[in-house]
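Example (one chain per record):
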Amino acid sequence: MDFAPTEEQLLVQRTARDFADRVLAPRAAARDLSSEFPTAELKELAGLGLLGIAVPEALPKALAKPAPPEVATSPALSLTALPGDGGIRTRKVAILAADGVHGASIGVVVSALVAAGAVPCVIAPRLGLVKTADGWLVEETATLENSPPVLFDALVLPDGAAGVLVLARLGQTMEFIVNQYRHGKTILALGASKRLLDRNGITAVLPSGEADPGLVLAGVDDLAHAAAAFIAATGKHRHPAREPDHEHFDSQTTDVV
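Predicted structure:
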């Protein structure tokens, strides 16, 4: 058997290597520092046909007439059918923060989450203390680099126009928010942080026209009520009514301030 690459495979190899040397490598250091999502590079890769894979023909069925499933639905496996007691004990809640966010809003929400038994985690772009607009020094738990959104059960976006602008410039922020939304998790957006939702096309209205019960919008003048509503929504685990909305939004590139 000959395992030598074909001429076509060698051409793909040369194309990929040339693109990496010419485009990716020169920009790599700057991209690591800025944490910007490589939108332009991905578009170029797509244009070269390097983001797709060849899909082989489907294999024949093992059974011409497979047996029908014994169980069509299973309430025992449904979070909707068995939502639990509505508490949020041990739930991990991500709080995205950057220099310039509103510190008092983080403090109130963290206190409410801890009292309910949850585990709040402040996620920042970099290691070190977050300097808030109102003079707080908030210690981050982890960074956007080492904390994938799938690890968290809910998301808090604090107020503070300057901090929101910092977060909006990071592709990781947008990915974090979209991932939480698509997985039906509860999101609390305070004040100016609603712009982060707007940038991703996320609205408080479901495809059915009803209000999204897992999306809590509030100002910093009503933090206690907002925290209580957020905790109640998080206790429902997930919000599957969003599922038909997955194709509704995509990341935008417009400014948010």
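Caption: Confidence is low (pLDDT under 50) at residues 250-257.
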